[in-house]
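Researcher: Next entry in the queue.
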Amino acid sequence: MTAIYVDADACPVKPEALKVAERHGLPLYIVSNGGIRPSPHPLVKTIIVATGADEADKWIADRATEGDIVITADIPLAARVIENGATALRHDGDLFTPANIGNRLAMRDLMADLRGSDPFLKGSGKSFGKRDKSRFLDRLEQLVRAATNR
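Model: Structure for this entry, 150 residues:
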């Protein structure tokens, strides 16, 4: 059965993911290092992992397989779940794919190097808005329908 996993730390679309999971009767795993209030919804499984770097990512990557959908902005996590056959989706509706994940990883590493060499270099500063949320909902709905019609 298809499951939806949310890399929940700083994820702005948890309520939207729940709407789609509820519509299709799918389990929704909200995974974080803590600080997330557990949901009483019967489809939601709140997972609190050990404190430490990438513990939530490890938990998700160890479980997400073909047919599952992972919501994350973490590019290395996206790469791992794609290797497992799962689908990786950013909270703005942008899809990570086998065709683009290598370039995304390379760009991430390049930007990390640039930020390391220039302490005044800032991120993109792109804000998250209603259009991003709408695109996310549309894309997640499409992915769930494709995964459950196999």
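Model: The domain at 4-148 is CATH 3.40.50 (Rossmann fold).
Researcher: Noted, moving on.
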